[in-house]
Each structure stands twice: as structure tokens, then as C-alpha cells.
Amino acid sequence: MAAGDSKEPDKDPNRLVTLIAHGGAGKTTLAESILHAAGATDRPGQVDAGTSILDHEPEEITRKITISAALAGFAWNGHHIDIIDTPGYGNFIEETKGCLRISDGAVVLVSAISGVKTETERLWKFTCEYEVPRIAFVNKMDRDRANFFRAIGDMEKAFVREGLAVQIPVGAEAGFKGHVDLVTMKAWTVPANGGRETEGEIPPELAGEAAAYRKKLVEKAAETDDALLEKYLDAGDLTEDEIRAGLRNGTIHGDFVPVLCGSALKGIGARALLDALISYLPGPEEKAGITPIIGTDPKGGKAVTRRPAKDESFSGLVFKTVADPFTGRLSFVRIYSGRLKPDGAVYNVTRSARERVGTVFSLVGKKQTPLTEAGPGQVVAIPKLKETLTGDTLADEQHPILFAPAKHPEPVISFALAPRGKADDDKVSAGIARILEEDPALRYHWDEETREMILGGMGQVHLEVALERLKRKFGVDVEMKTPKVPYHETIRGKARVQGRYKKQTGGHGQYGDCWLSVEPLPRGGGFEFVDKVVGGAIPRQYIPAVEKGVVEALKEGVLADCPIVDVRVTVDDGSYHTVDSSEMAFKIAGSMAVKKALAESKPVLLEPVMSVEVDVPDEALGAVIGDLNGRRGKVQGVDPQAGGQKIRAVVPMAEMLTYAQSLNPLTAGRGVYTMEFSHYEEIPSHLAGKIISARKGEAETARK
To answer: pTM for this one?
Structure first.
């Protein structure tokens, strides 16, 4: 895009911007400062004091961290800006990923003290994946050991992207009081008695440094466009508007990242950042020029494109849901095209369902302001949509389009849920279902083998917070326990035995008699039942009863009451009584026979083995491999990748139940892993004995 083709901001007036960084970097404090600077709030809320209007959930106030993304819509200099304050802790980072997917721009916070941390690196990768233009804000400039240029260097090293200073700080640490704007070459500083920043001349001691950094800034701006470069080479300078146009062009196309500075806690730099959101980040139309709005036609599956214009057919994506037991669902929608008005209808393309839209809200935290209309690039909240969930596409029914839902990774940790009281038993599943509406990164299922409710998530804190909400919102109190490992049993030998059931009482008795053979199948072979009865030794109508008895008996093994797998059972002989034989008698005979045969066939215990992939920084490779080996893991290979190594291994599930807690300290929080079921294999005998003893002890306790 040539500089002359860049649209004036008032032709593309909406901005949808996500704030990202590691937890504790000051995102929420910065958002509160921005809202106050824009006049959207009377005073900035404080996270530590529990007065933040964005971190308003009880769990956030208690823990003093952002757990859920919060929206804030407001006006600034003729523009509508929607800011999304997002979680920065790894347990909740999936929600931030979902917000980045629908954003037109992002502000990356970098600490002036500690630089870039692991979570920020992960979030940066998401911005690259979704092609989100970024600017950076170096925060905490008023703290001890703060260093603006060191932070830029750390950012460039971590992100492999040039950080271009558009400001330089005035003062340092406790003496920090503002910045020099390198575009206008004016200083903005806070008066000695406090208050809002005011414009003034550059302090003499900074004049030389400011001139040097401005020269670099203008050169970079000129390089984004041939016409600008030609003018710069001829005239030796550019106008302020031309500099901004060049910086905007370079930012949108990812040539560099403009860097600002300030103190979120003191409100220094907030107004300049608001101006930068408008000057350097794109509106929806410009963003669509880089990343077109593409979906599919639900009828034919062909690609469909939408323009981010009000005269287009309506389309939007639900990127977040809040479930409330009293008011129902509140759906957060990014509008991609068309207009959305209250008292109308939309079509849920994902679920082929019509939805009634009553009210459309703009949000500032939990404060709701009704809108008469919303357009492309805005995020709105719609209450009480009956069918709609996170990831669904809403559109005009006559012109449908389907956007692909976000993909979430498999849980890194899972726990079994145990209701604390009998009254909670019936309410757990219903309550969990509502919590899952809010947080698609959670996974819940009933494990038939272990008879447990299993909840999985991105970390232990993630699950703890989910259960806190479950109790607060839906009155269901449960505790987390380490889940049982779904062990299996199989056999290594063969046996042939008789199962004979005879019972005589007054009148008709019960008689069933069968001979069964058992033998092992290859691992993963499952179960086979073979009928080799000849000569009518067992009448045809009783064979299914024998099989049924066998199948039921295989549900509980002879070692640790675990399911029996990978066996072939053959019935080849037996006898019957013309009066006393029955299906029930042969079912019992089949069960008796297979239990006896299994005990004589060298039974062994099997454990599930997981296929694991671990992404680690280079310096942690040896420690992580050593840890996996200590978990009875077998490393299959190591593959180089950007920023580190990918370890491929197979590890017993029993050794991976709490792996997340161990991986974090080994990799300084930079390790990420995924795992999925691979196969079952025999447990070493010295471990099998302990497991069998423990399972028998649990069974005896349960019987008591």
C-alpha cells in the first residue's frame, strides 16, 4: 500500500485492539488508565485494591489476576475504540488466543524491568499466526532498574522483529515524568505537582538523543513507500503526516513494531497510546486488506468473502460466552460486516437456528450500554441467545457465511471430580455444562472404566477457578482428586476349562454346562468369541447366553478387577438338560468357565501409554529428556524448531498425570506439551504388584 493510498482515519473509524503480555505486566492497569484518559470512567480502578472495573469477577478480585477477557468500548477523537483486556497467565492463555483471532490490532506490553517473559512470547506467536499488526508499550518506566532501550533490545531478541522507538523517555525510574514524541519533536511531561501530561519543549539534555532517534524513525517510515523514500532522499525530511503514514504502513505490514513508553499505574503515556492506536493500527477495512474476511458457504462449501462495510450482509463471530444462572447467556460478538440492530433477528449458521436479538450492548467491564446500531470492527454483547455458543457464526439468513471455529489444544492436566455432598451428585453435570459454555478450553467426560467424572484444562489453577465458579454460580461443590489410571488386564497363556452350573430346588432346576478355551490375541486385538460346538452338545439357542456371560465376566479381571482385553474365547463342548437348562443357566456357566480359565492363563496387568510432544528451549533439552527417562518414557526423536526443540516420546499415563507441575520449573515456564493416547503395554512386574495390592485395598474399602 502506498502512503498516498492510506486511508484517513475518519474513513475507517473503528479500532478493535487486544492488550497482551505475561501476567503481572500491567495490562489491566493500563486499560484502566486508558479508560480514564478517554473520559470513559471518572477514575482509574486498581487491581490490588479490588476496584478494577475490568477484573470484576470474584475469582479475579481474590487472586488479583485477569482470568477472563474483559471488553471496554469508548470514543476517542472521533473514533470508536474497543479494547480487550486479556489474561496473561498460561492457565488462561487460550482465551487470549481467541481474542487475538478476532482483533484488528494488538498492544504488546513489555516490562521496563524484566523485559519479555514466556507467556508474552507465546502470545506473540499467536499474533503472527493471525497476522495481527502490533505496537508495543514499555510499562513500569517509573520503577527501579527500569530501562527503555534494554526493554526494546529484549523485545527484538524474543520476537525477532525490529522495535522502532517513536518516543524516548524523559527521566528515569523515580524521576520518570513523560516522553519525547519523535514525530512532533515535543515533550509531554507530568507537572511536578502531578496531574495530566502537558506539551512542552524537549529538555536540552535530550535534544541530541531525540534528534538521532528521530532520524532513524523518519528513515524507517520513508522505506515503507517508494514515493516517501524519494521525497526523503530529495528533501532530507518528511512532514508529520507523512511520517505517520509511513509508520502506519510499516506497522500494518509487519516491517517493524512502534514502541511507546509510560507508567500504567501513574497514567503516564495513556493519551499518547490512544493516539497511537488510531495513527498506527488499522481499522477493519485496512485489516481486511491484509487478512481478507473469508468463510464458507454452508450449502455448497465454497469460499465466501465479506467486506467490512455497513452495506454488506451481516456477519459476526461469537468469541466469548458468559453463563449466568439468573440472566442466561451473554454472547460476545465480533461484527465483521453489515449492521446489527436491537429488536431484530440473526441466523446461527453453525447450528442452523434462528435467534432473536433483543438488546445489543457495548460494554465497559460489566457496565452495559444499549446501542441503537453496531457495525464492522465493533464488539458487542447480546443477551439470552438460546442456541448460540462460543465459536458460532451469526449471519443474515439469506446470505449465510460460516467462519471456522477456534481450535483448542487437548488438556495438559486432568482431575477426577468428587461431589462433597449427596445433594451435589445430580447437579454436577448440569453445572459443568454451563461452565463449559464459558470456557471451551475445558474438557469434561465420564470415564466408563474408572467410573469417574474427569475435568481437564490448561493447568491446575485453570481447573480450580472453574470449580470456584461452579460453586459460586450454580451452587455445586466438588473437590479434585488425582484420576485413576484405566488399567487393563490380559493373558499370556492358554487354558481350557469347564463351567458347570447346576441347581436343584423344588420343581424345575437350573442346568448349564460348557467347555471354554482362552488364548491371547495380539495387543489391540480386542475380544473374539468363537463357536465350535458340534453335534448339538449345546443347543443353538443357548450359545448367545454363553457369550453374554463371558462378556460380562471380562469386565472385571482376576488381578485387579480391571477389564480383560486382547483375548479369544472359544466354546467347543458342553451338555444340557431337556427340562432344567435355560439361558440364565448357560450365562452363569459361561461366566464361571471364563473366570477359571483366565486365572490359569498367566494374567498380566496393562497400562495406557501416551504419545507426548514437548516443546522446550534449547538450554532445557537435556533436563527435560532426563526427566522423561525418569518417568519410564522412551524418547522417539528430537526435532529442531524455531526457538527450541520438539521432543517426541511415549510415556506411561501414570507418570504424566502431574507432568505440568514438573515441566514448568525445568523450562522456566517456557515448556509446552501435548499428549494423546498411543497404546497399552505390560507393566513391569515390580510395579504391577503394588498396583494390584492398592486396587484390592480400594475394593475392600468400598465393600465396607
So the answer is: 0.82
